[in-house]
Specification:
Elements: H1 2-29, H2 31-44, E1 54-55, H3 61-90, H4 96-135, E2 151-152, H5 153-183, H6 189-193, H7 195-209, H8 214-239
Parallel strand pairs: 1-2
Helix pairs in contact: 1-3, 4-5, 5-8, 7-8
Length: 240
Amino acid sequence: MFIHYLKEIKNRLLLILIMYAATTLFLFFYKELLMFIIIKPIIKINLSQDNVYFIYTDITEIFYIYIYLIFTVTNVLSAFYITYQSTLFIIPSLYFFELKKLVDLMLFIYFSLIGFTYTFYALLFPKTLIFFFNMSNTGNCEHMLPLYFESKLTEYIYLFFNTYIISSLSAVILLSTLILTCKIKESPEFMKNQRKFSYLSFCALSTIATPPDVFSQLIAILLLASIYEAFLIIKIIRFN
């Protein structure tokens, strides 16, 4: 029986590696289209495409940007496939009600991420760019020096993915906490007692999901902690 499970794990790992390699190869052949999709939000908020250009300061920078784009998108897509394969592996050990809850949870996470990705790409990120562009717009003010913006390609790409990762993580945690808050019938003492474990999980999630810099991790931790404390207050109010 143990050998059977090892063979199944080996087969599923092989499928994951094949999927990862195939996705990487596919994105490599369409890397220009992938780049255009990422920079499209900044094109849409300008009057014409001729007004949009990016600068780079290293001859190998474009190559590394393509590599970063390909593997970042591949990792995101592979996360879904790894979750799917992991779910298939543990399904035989679950009762029917456990399986139903697991499927509902997976569908909720998948559709939430898909819906948020579309909202982020079509609305949130363009609005964020407009906000920062307006901050640098001096208009007709006579007491301001004229400011000219030249976007560096690497900084724009990093801004796009950093903003997406932090905001999507916060959105999923927000929706999950809202559902748990509505479903848990016990007193708010349960959330209070689990606070230290929740904060520890926030730190772990922020370390894994955000870029390796302290500022991004602190922002993600503060957002998640704020959401947790807000729903704890809501739970206390509802319980009382």
